[in-house]
Request: fold
Amino acid sequence: MKILMVYLRPSPVSPQKNSALSVIYPGRAAEEAGHDVDYWDARLDSEKKLWFLTEWADVVAISSLSGFQLGESIRFARRVRELYPNKPLVWGGVHPTFQPVQSLREPFVDFCVIGEGEKRFPRLLEVIEGGRGFRCIDGLGYKRTSIGYEPSPEEEEVFTDPEAHPGGLVLRPIPGREGMDRIELHDAMGVFGDIAVNPRGPLLDFATEYVSAVSERTLRLFRAAAKR
Reply:
């Protein structure tokens, strides 16, 4: 398949031009799996090139942080859905990792790759092509109405028998970080109406605590600067 990896502007100015590893790593893995992959970085590439590649692609993948980049990603994804309603939209990165159910409630989100995508993303592309194996990918969020979700009968059991998958998302406090919660995925599939979230890999708990710790430190720095 032809795959477009998209990295929107992470901030209004974005003076740094560091490599967008969040799309390069899974994109390279998709290349090694035999897919034709191209990349678009808003800090380096033109809008004209973006829409040329969007038309070319069979699947569009977006990496997004919460905040400014999320707004840019939503703007782009909405437009893609309007122009190309049959193209699957795959989201990865920090925001869909920690808010998969919220993300999947949006009509312009078909799949969420939760956590590291080097293995999950190529596997997702494989099952989109074959229609079998969605529920076997750890760290994948999807829904019954996802573009690209054309499942076998056994795949549909996830939604036709939701009582068999009572797992879910819970907020749990991080020890030593009062007032800060983390989202933790159960070790069993969670089904929320027409949305399914598969259990995550072992690195997500560490990543969640790390991001929470960084957020707490950033907040302290801002408060200290405000007092000067």
